Amino acid sequence: MRARYAADPARSRGRRFHEPPAPTRSEFQRDRDRIVHSTAFRRLVYKTQVFLNHEGDLFRTRLTHSLEVAQLGRSIGRSLQLDEDLIETIALAHDLGHTPFGHAGQDVLDDCMQAHGGFEHNLQSLRVVDRLEQRYPSFDGLNLTFESREGILKHCSRRNANLLEAQEPDGVAARFLRGGQPSLEAQLCNLADEVAYNAHDVDDGVRSGLVSLEQLEQVPLVAEHLRSSLHAHPGLNGKRLLAETIRRMLSEQVYDIIRATGQSLAELDPVSIAAVRGAAPLVRFSAAMRAASSELKRFLFANLYRHEQVQATRGRAERVLRDLFQTYFADAAQLPADFADSEDHARACADYIAGMTDRFALREHERLTGQRLFG
After folding, report:
1. How far apart are the C-alpha atoms of 196 and 190, rounded to whole Å?
2. Residue 53: what pLDDT?
3. What angle do CA 111, 97, 161 make, to 5 degrees?
4. Which residues have C-beta within 8 Å of that of residue 338, sequence separation ≥ 6?
5. Average pLDDT value for residue range 198-202
6. C-alpha torsion angle, residues 188, 189, 190, 196 (rounded to 10)
7. Ranges for the HD domain (predicted)?
8. How far is CA 358 from the centre of its chain?
9. Which residues neighbour 230 within 8 Å (Cβ) at sequence distance 6 or greater?
10. How much is the average pLDDT of 320-339?
């Protein structure tokens, strides 16, 4: 059952290019299916989350992260009576524009592109589904619905929002200029993203040996569920203790979002998605959980993302992408024909590099420079 404040595929604002409706699927189901079958989605399996793909078979990648966001989003969305297909679409597509080597790659491309408009991975995800995927004879991109595209564009600078608005008046960037919110499904994906990466970075951090459960006892959100796990299962240790702690932590955050968001919805009582767009953000943590989640994020930033081993990898990854950009920018002949012929050469270089997997970027770097920076 879908609530009256949920996005309704039958009342979608539509696609940029008209297409007849599908006989057996809703518009949001079609969007999800197009994402799953896209080239950019398949590439996520070899794109770094925190640890490079070759550093361990069990560490998360952008693909597994996106699947975890989709699972959490659908579970919460079902309780809130939202459209699960739209949630899944946004979750699976939200990182399509991410570069190889995680945030290190994004920072390098943004630096390289400073004189050419910069680089934003959320905007790049929209570029992927609007322009860069080439699957249909009549248009570029995947021709997704407005609601899916709106959810994919999670953040946007004012400069880029103005550029998008000029191309698409009252489009997906309008809310960044006029205020307002996206659908509840999009709001939920934003929060599910945070819940997922906090949990799986705890898991990957401990599995990697870079952080320990003893260190994590400094973080109240983890310590609480570590204690409750041991109280319920005395003597539990190792992987099972880690898994049970994370399971309990995830469950509490999911139930907290459902309770806090339910309270927001009860107070506002929105009668339509239009009322949602005109209100303050409605999908939220409680104040206590927001503080606890923020403290966990600070811990991970200081102890995992800034760990000397992760930073050493980051330095080499930055060099790979900077060298690639400089080489392609200086010599368009090194780019594939689809990119070499672009009117905006710098943006074409960024598009090509952003679409690479980690391992393809390393192979290209070695081919062009003769250097092997990773084993």
Report:
1. 10
2. 47
3. 70
4. 134
5. 91
6. 110
7. 62-198
8. 17
9. 236, 241
10. 95
Report DSSP letters for 81-131, one per residue: T--HHHHHHHHHHTTTTPPTTHHHHHHHHHHHTGGGT---HHHHHHHIIII
This prediction's pTM: 0.95
Model pLDDT, residue 58: 56
Instruction: For the chain, give the mean pLDDT.
Output: 93
Residue with tokens 């009576």: 81
**Rounded Cα gap, residues 325 and 338, in angstroms:** 16
- Whole-number pLDDT of residue 103: 84
Q: Cα dist. 243→28, 146, 159 in Å?
A: 33, 38, 43
Under 8 Å between Cβ of 174 and 207: no
Q: Which pair of structure tokens corresponds to residue 251? A: 């469950």
Joined together, the tokens standing for residue 266 give: 């009860």
Structure letter (DSSP) for residue 269: -
Among 204, 248, 203, which Cα is nearest to 230's? 248
